[in-house]
Amino acid sequence: MTEQIFTNAKIVLANDVIDGAVQIKDGIITDVSDRASNLPGAEDMGGDYLMPGLVELHTDNLDKHLTPRPKTRWPATAAVIAHDNQVASAGITTVFDAVSIGDVNEGSERIVRLVESVEALAHAQDNDLLRADHKLHLRCETSFPGMIEALGTLVEMPLVKMLSVMDHTPGQRQFVSLEAYYTYYQGKYGLNDEEMRKFVATRRRDSELYSAKHRRHVVETAHAKGLALASHDDATNAHVAEAVADKMTVAEFPTTLEAAKASHEAGLGVMMGGPNLVRGGSHNGNVAAGDLAKNGYLDIISSDYVPHSLLHGAMKLFDDFNEYDLPRAIRTVSLNPATQVDLTDRGEIAVGKRGDLIRVHHSPHHPIVRGVWREGVRVS
Q: Which residues contact 59 (CB under 8 A, 6 or more apart)?
């Protein structure tokens, strides 16, 4: 039997912060005490915070490692390992890698390397090459003509635990502003004005032909397989009503305060990006995560494309928003996301839960992760 004791820590519980010690045996938390331990071998936290390992439901950070520069493909398994190292060092012990099923550009790297990347992830996980516990979140672009075929047998993989529906058609949801859509995609693909007009027309045509049918397929597949289901970029009460009718549990990145309020009140976990929160606003002009926080509508933070923004965002909630004490802020990156995807064995420091822990020094400038343990084993 392996045993660890972490003492002299500020322990962040689900609803409180106490000074004391935590004991782990064989990867499971067996005791949480409000007294320091004097037992030999106890690891002194030096007064730092001891928090539950972070739970990330949506990150496409792997994409940056698969293609570190335009037209530069990195070996897939090496990319997965590099991504994992970055995730674990950020304090993330459970990560849902958000892989796109379809894209607005049929020749994109996301489509070309889809199967290769998920197979590399499964290989790395099966061969114990990873520090964090990885799961797959398949983000389904409903307007993509080949979405159903691309989803295919991938949804049968044991790593798949979550599906989401998204539709990046210009003029709605994430891109209500056509100006923002032009700025983003002309910059991304180097299209001139005429090419961009054709691009927009094609995207709108595809949405009319496929979006509704593909959404039904994803929803029915998720429910049939018992997978968590999320809606992406809801902007209106009608969008939220549709998500509720489809029995979704997570509202990913609502683009308006109206949609966030309706989602929160309907019991969906409202997720916003850590980069949005840290930077103080959305990169494309949608609602700021801070505006949701001021109204108490922000339930879950995702690091999205910057792994270290997960903890940074949570601590920013604690530092800058009176609505969030420290336990509530940390729940947005631990217990709340775990609960929304039915991972009842983790997400909080409590007896019987997994020994996923992080040691955090909260400096005046930035939270510093000083140690990461997954099921009692130090991984960073």
A: 87, 95, 96, 97, 98, 302, 303, 304, 305, 307
pLDDT at 170: 64
3-state percent breakdown (helix, strand, coil) of the chain, nearest 5:
40, 25, 35
- Tell me if residue 120 falls in helix, strand or coil: helix
CA angle 213, 105, 164 (to 5 degrees): 45
Cα 29 from Cα 91, distance rounded (Å): 18
What is the C-alpha to C-alpha distance for residues 98 and 56, in angstroms, rounded to an integer? 10
Tokens of 22: 């935590």
Cα dihedral across residues 132, 370, 299, 34: positive or negative = positive
Half-sphere exposure of 278 (CA within 13 A, CB side): 21
218-245: per-residue pLDDT in tens? 999 999 999 999 998 899 999 999 999 9
Topology, domain 1-51+347-380: Urease, subunit C; domain 1 (2.30.40)
54-345: in CATH 3.20.20.140: yes
Distance CA 271, CA 369 (A): 23
Write down the pTM of the prediction. Answer: 0.91
Please identify every stretch of the chain with a pLDDT value under 70, giving residue numbers as ranges: 1, 104-107, 169-190, 284
